[in-house]
Write a structure and sequence with these properties.
Shape: elongated
Strand content: 5-15%
Strand order of the largest sheet: 2-1-5-13-14
Oligomer: single chain
Largest sheet: 5 strands, mixed
Structural class: alpha+beta
Number of helices: 27
């Protein structure tokens, strides 16, 4: 060490010893009288310092202290509730998960447990309990007995709950305690004792970002605070001492012990008798935990969409800042049905667990990108969205996939067919399945198979690219784009022929919207997921009506024809596993979709009462299955709709979504065209083929002999002379037997 530094340190040490020696000698020479004077002086200075400190806090030197008027207008931030169409809680919006309730909505058991445990002399003091403060000072600080508690009254705790403590370094706790004493005293002068209890119970934290007895009761016991019995009330009140340590979900044993201690104190306070005490302490700690946090619970992705929409509507109607869904305790009612939502979430998560394992095995790796999925279901008669799954795991990824745009593959083809029918191309047109060149575009089938002639129904059921390309070459891309615009698709679509094969990037939301007319015989209805927004007092701030009337975007019979083609997809085409694997026997139509390299798998399905869509893929399209089998929509997406639909068949309360009948054609000729064979080995003469169809119908007894005299020009009269004995029956019933006869006649030419 440097000699100069060492010398300096020695000098400093000698000086310190000298100073201490002088001070020690001074202490030894003091008399008793002098010591008394010194003690009184120290006490006086200390008291003066404390008084000055308290005065400085009181006067606001350490931050603002609420006035009486401010305390009279205490307003707590209340969480808004998101409900499903039947009034079930889906989620809450909050900065702090708090629900304020009135005194009558809180069980008396809660009040008794609270007073007995937290402040036994609550009704005797005026905000500060001197006895408790003295007990804490002597037993907690001097005798080190931590069981004596904090000594704060309920009024002081309320002050702490309402007004957050500020950081003042080493003075933080003294400043906070003085402020809380001042505020507690003022609260006692502004509010009655009962009002203070209600305010406290509406603000006290229970951990897990839950504030207030109502929110806590719903979280841990799935019931209103007014229905809490002694054991459940004691459990929640017991959490107030340490809401994590005594959390009944995290630490059930410690929570049970604390609950029984609260019950003991209720007995000692005279709120329950000894027999009740023994009975309640023997009860098991039984939770009915219900979390609706932002990353957990039901409809996690949906709640984000609705929250943004609800806030935007309120801002537009009333101005920004007037209402806030995170603080104003609003009631937001949605169209979602929690029964269907839970089934949808099960269908997605259970299927995606299998898909992910297969994906990892396909690449022989467990560290690849996680696959994502989306599902949407809507009522075609109202446009109301019934189920919305925006992803697999909100904790992992918050990307919302229902509204995300991706290439849609062959699920776009029905729009091309619908446009062709609207443009006058007949459903009985037979197109040769051969590869053609359209300038530089030379599309081929995904399976590389060609040959034979297909009707439009047969071509769509097999998802033949060759026929879709032929159709768009005849009608033009612009006509198709105009058609899908009418059907509800707003995303930009390039005016190129390849859109016929699904190169456009659209969202599942738009696709579900656009498939509605196929289920409703041409009527489009706008999708909707928000019913109303109300205050807790019942004031209606916003209300929407379902789009019952809708708009006709396809002619009735052309829409029925496309739906019939989509039924063939499920009956014998690329979507046949809906019936073979998932056992769906009711009327069902759908379309699979696969994009290049299997980056996206789609399936759109429908019954007369519900339209569904599913998408599966990686967020980064460069990640996809190596296997073309696993990358197709029939494997990736169809099972989600299949599992969802299959589950509904076993649920009596919602099985009606799979029931009913699709609309039938208005024209008899349309019904006849639906009976034509889907595939022929040669190009048929359509008129001759029609004659065979009608002959078969006559053999089955549905048509009269005069039907053979049909004309190429169809007037207002019945061109097929349908049997008058069956005239009162719908067209679909008249032709029911035709399908059976035609199946046997054309089975050879229509084989796969």
């Amino acid at each position: 060490m440097n000699n100069k530094l060492l010398s300096w340190l020695n000098s400093a040490a000698q000086f310190s010893r000298l100073k201490f020696s002088i001070f020690y000698q001074w202490l030894r020479t003091r008399t008793a009288k002098q010591w008394l004077f010194i003690s009184l002086k120290v006490i006086g200075v200390s008291i003066l310092a404390v008084l000055l400190f308290v005065a400085s806090v009181y006067l606001g030197a350490w931050g603002h202290v609420p006035t009486y008027n401010e305390l009279r207008s205490i307003e707590n931030d209340d969480a808004s509730e998101l409900l499903d169409c039947r009034g079930n809680l889906l989620s809450r919006y909050y900065f702090r998960n708090r629900l304020s309730v009135d005194s009558a909505d809180i069980s008396q058991n809660v009040y008794k447990a609270l007073v007995a445990t937290e402040d036994s002399r609550f009704f005797e003091h005026s905000g500060i309990d001197a006895k408790s403060m003295a007990r804490v000072f002597f037993k907690t600080f001097l005798m080190m007995d931590a069981s004596q508690g904090g000594g704060s009254t309920i009024s002081q705790q309320l002050a702490k709950n309402v007004y957050d403590r500020q950081n003042y370094g080493i003075f933080t706790m003294p400043v906070a305690k003085v402020k809380e004493i001042i505020i507690a005293h003022r609260l006692e002068r502004v509010y009655t004792k009962d009002q203070i209890l209600v305010l406290y119970l509406n603000t006290v934290p229970f951990g897990e970002n839950v504030y207030g007895i109502e929110a806590a009761s719903k979280r841990f016991f799935s019931r209103r605070a007014k229905w809490l019995d002694v054991p459940t009330a004691a459990t929640l009140v017991g959490m107030l001492a340490a809401n994590t340590k005594f959390n009944p979900r995290i630490n059930p044993d410690k929570s049970l012990e604390r609950r029984n201690l609260v019950i003991d104190r209720m007995y000692k306070a005279g709120f329950i008798d000894s027999a009740s005490m023994v009975k309640y302490k023997k009860e098991e700690l039984t939770l009915k935990y219900n979390t609706n946090d932002r990353d957990n619970g039901t409809a996690v992705f949906f709640r984000d969409i609705v929250g943004k929409q609800a806030q935007a509507i309120l801002d537009e109607l009333y101005g920004e800042g007037v209402y806030n869904i995170y603080t104003d305790g609003l009631i937001i009612k949605s169209t979602l049905d929690i029964r269907l939502q839970r089934v949808a979430e099960y269908a997605v998560t259970s299927h995606m667990a299998e898909v992910q394992r297969t994906f990892n095995k396909d690449w022989n790796s467990d560290s690849l990108a996680v696959l994502s999925a989306a599902f949407l279901a809507a009522d075609p008669h109202t446009g109301n969205i019934l189920a919305w799954v925006g992803g697999v795991d909100h904790n992992y990824s918050q990307i919302e996939h229902v509204t995300m745009r991706r290439q849609v593959g062959s699920t776009f083809k029905p729009f091309v067919y619908a446009t062709a029918l609207e443009q006058g191309i007949l459903p009985t047109t037979y197109v040769e399945n051969v590869r053609r060149s359209y300038g530089k575009w030379n599309p081929g089938n995904s399976d590389g198979k060609y040959g034979d002639f297909y009707s439009l129904k047969g071509a769509l059921s097999k998802s033949l690219n060759t026929v879709s390309a032929w159709l768009i070459d005849n009608v033009g891309p612009d006509a198709v784009i105009d058609q899908v615009r009418d059907m509800g698709i707003e995303s930009p679509i390039p005016s190129v022929p390849s859109i016929a094969l699904g190169t456009a990037e659209l969202s599942l939301y738009e696709m579900t919207q656009a498939y509605i007319p196929f289920a409703t015989a041409g009527i489009s209805r706008r999708l909707n997921y928000l019913i109303s927004i109300e205050t807790r007092d019942g004031e209606v701030l916003y209300q929407t009506e379902p789009d019952v009337d809708g708009v006709e975007v396809l002619s009735h019979d052309n829409a029925v024809l496309v739906r019939d083609m989509l039924t063939a997809v499920v009956d014998s085409g690329t979507g046949r596993s809906m019936r073979r694997i998932y056992g769906i026997k009711s009327p069902f139509a759908g379309k699979t979709g696969t994009t290049q390299n299997g980056a996206d798998g789609w399936f759109m399905g429908m019954t007369p009462n519900i339209v569904m869509g599913a998408w599966v893929g990686a967020d980064n399209p460069s990640f996809h299955f190596k296997s073309s089998y696993y990358g197709q929509g029939a494997y990736l997406a169809l099972p989600i709709v299949g599992r969802f639909s299959n589950a509904l068949t076993r649920m009596e309360s919602v099985v009606h979504y799979l029931m009913g009948e699709f609309p039938e054609p208005n024209e008899a000729e349309t019904s006849i065209s639906m009976l034509f064979p889907s595939r022929m080995s040669y190009h048929p003469n359509v008129d001759s083929l029609r004659a065979v169809v009608i002959d078969s119908a006559i053999v089955s007894g549905v048509l009269d002999e005069d039907a053979r005299e049909f004309s190429d020009e169809y007037g207002d009269d019945d061109p097929f002379n349908i049997n008058t004995n069956k005239e009162e029956k719908p067209v679909r019933k008249r032709f029911r037997n035709i399908f059976k006869t035609m199946k046997s006649i054309f089975s050879k030419s229509d084989e796969e």
